[in-house]
Amino acid sequence: MVGVYDKLLSSDYYGGAFQHLTDNYADISMYNGFFPEYQEADSKNLPTTNTLVERVWLGIYSVVNITNELVYNIPNVVDDNFTDEEKNELIAEAKAIRALCYLDLLVYFGEHWDLNSSFGIPLFENATNSNFANVKNIARSSVEETYQFILSDLNEAFETGVSNSGNEYINNSFINALLSRTYLHMQDFTNSLVYSNNILSDTSSTFMLMDNYSDVFYNNSTSESILELTSNSMDPTELSLYTISRSEVIPEIELINSFDSLDTRRALIGTVDGLDGIERLLKYDDYSSHGNPAYLIRLAEIYLYHAEANYFLGNLDGALADLNILRQRAGLSSYENTENLITNYINENRWEL
Questions:
Q1: I need a labelling partner for 240 at 20 to 30 A (CA). Which of 147, 224, 294, 313 fits?
Q2: The model's pTM
Q3: Of 232, 199, 278, 330, the residue nearest 31 (C-alpha)
Q4: Rounded to an integer, what distance in angstroms lies between the CA atom of residue 269 and that of residue 31?
Q5: How large a percentage of the chain has pLDDT more than 90?
Q6: Nearest in space to 176 (alpha carbons), one of 63, 70, 297
């Protein structure tokens, strides 16, 4: 299981390429360097030879492979000190991570918005026993089949539950969050609202928004992180390599100009003492040892899920209230009415995340 978390934080997945590729493609960032694979993402011209895309695809499937080994082999372990309850919990943890991987693959490489599409994702669920000659090329499953596989893993993890506390490992709030996100992609807004409500209405939860937005990123494992993959100088990430050390993945000018002057989230874009005067993305501030964590899901994101589900279910006042919670934390005045609500939602999503 430790190996699963290590692979999740690899430079091909949440520790680098997976995030840089998306931000370049979606005009959150622009590319200011010379690597063609990054230039192609920035220009939205992705040929089949793009190595960044290949790295992400293989990086995610390498995590899937380890989770398959765990799911298949844990039941076969004979050890009187390894109880069935512990086995089931580890399997639930592995399945929750496998579900995350397949949802990421589907959103990146499949037609995830169309439940009738045949372009889902190849679903591997059997162990290779570390012999990759055992891996057979298989066809894509449909989008609906892919979603059902993801939901099967998540529902089993939800029913079993995990006892991990804190936010450095899979916890029950993460499972609820991923169920909410999955149903949101499926446009099943009723179920999405149920699972985001499970988190937001949990009075016993230790998760809460930080008063200061920047504190989420300038401190480790805050109360706002539902799942945060920790890193250090002995196990570094590439998250600050391109964004700070080398000013190659830098904020898009349009993004910079879109912030209100009073928005405290704007403070996460700025110059760095001792480097050139180019404004950088400052979330990953440890550019000396590169021990930057990856923030997989934060509580702020749950408010956005909740707002989107409320909006499409016709509860515009509820969606407005969700957005205003984030607005107020950012030091801004609340939206006064539901006019332009979907545009405001899209903007808040971009500024917050």
A1: 224
A2: 0.97
A3: 278
A4: 15
A5: 93
A6: 297
